Amino acid sequence: MKNSNLAKDEKKNAVSIKKTESGIKLLEINNLSKSFDGKKVLMDISLYVEKGEVVSILGPSGSGKSTLLRCATFLETMDNGSLSYCGKQVVKSENGTAVYPSKAEMKEAKSKFGLVFRNFNLFPHFNVLKNISDAPISVMKRDKEEVYEECRQILKKVGLEDKEKAYPCELSGGQQQRVAIARALVMNPAMLYFDEPTSALDPEITAGILRILKDLAKEKMTMVIVTHEIDFARAVSDRVIFMDGGYIVEQGKPEDVIDNPKNERTKTFLKKLSV
Prior knowledge:
alpha/beta; Rossmann fold; 6-stranded mixed sheet; 5-stranded antiparallel sheet
């Protein structure tokens, strides 16, 4: 009963926030639910992301953060709910079931975003330039030399201009993550997702990755970042979402959710991190 009431309260909160905003919504999710083998992992999730926003998602392990990103990027299928990109509904809800569109429509929707994985997911047999340029050339059929020039500019942006011929095994974890970011950027997506981009890195290397994300935020790149870096979320986010137990428990400006949380579960989580 408590969880049911929480879900109702959070649904009202999400709707009230949505009505006060007037920007361009690049992503909109309504009433998303997801289960694995009968176990509910996401329950009645509703959220939106506006153009130019940085939205950080916080929460303990097992709260559903990564599953939410996987559903938003079609790596997992939603059980129920609707999902729209750039104002166009991609997944709709019919009789309590999520209905997905044709392959062509899915391909169009996938072109709207890039995803940076926590474990990099680079092709080990491709060098850096090939890892970054393969999709624009092979999938998008763009001119090879034009793509190479753009890739080199992006490599310079992430501090890897001297690594285009290197292979992933010759790079540090931080360098591999920079390549993954460059690979997402070269597709020129409307928004980027990051699934705990620093979780596999040591503190010194983490600082370098966070600087790149801060630079992207200054350039008004729309980003959704699942992170455990509280100070970073506070500094870079326009909004913060706190999840627990498959629900959105609290959301709002970072100074409200992180520095002055209203929900007891948010307070408990943040207190544990500060110990």
